[in-house]
Amino acid sequence: MVSVLADPVIGIKKHINERIPVCPTNNLLYLHIDTKGIFWMASRGGGLIRWDSTTNAFKSYTVNEGLSHNIIYAVLEDDYGFLVDGPVTWA
């Protein structure tokens, strides 16, 4: 199955294969692509997952790496390139 990353202004940005064989979890809640092209996935129970699609390398960040919870609802990038997680207010 393939999902899409959509932008409300420009439409479909990228097609994403949901069955990525080495992804640590398939219970994803949010996907963000940072300014360097790295995918950051917020998950229910699997923490924050970093995916470099050019090398297919995954890195999970969980309570073992210092997160306060393994449930991450969203991840965004601020104006300085830092990732921010937490409550999101949708307008």
Q: Can you describe what's shown?
A:
This protein has 91 residues and is mostly beta strands. It has one domain (25-91). The protein has strands at residues 2-7, 11-17, 28-33, 39-43, 48-52, 57-61, 75-77, 83-85. The strands form three sheets. It has a four-stranded antiparallel β-sheet, with no helix packed on it. It has a two-stranded antiparallel sheet with strand order 1-2. The mean pLDDT is 76.
Topology diagram in text:
Layout: E1 2-7, E2 11-17, E3 28-33, E4 39-43, E5 48-52, E6 57-61, E7 75-77, E8 83-85
Antiparallel strand pairs: 1-2, 3-4, 4-5, 5-6, 7-8
Shape: globular
Task: Spell out the helices and strands N to C.
Answer: EEEEEEEE
| Spatial order of the strands forming the largest sheet | 3-4-5-6
Topology, number of strands: 8
> Major beta sheet, specifics?
4 strands, antiparallel
| Average residue pLDDT | 76
- What is the distance, rounded to the nearest whole angstrom, between the alpha carbons of the first and last residues? 30 Å
Question: What is the C-alpha radius of gyration, as a whole number of Å?
Answer: 13 Å
Number of distinct helices: 0
What structural category characterises the helix and strand content? mainly beta
Strand proportion, as a percent range, falls in 35-45%
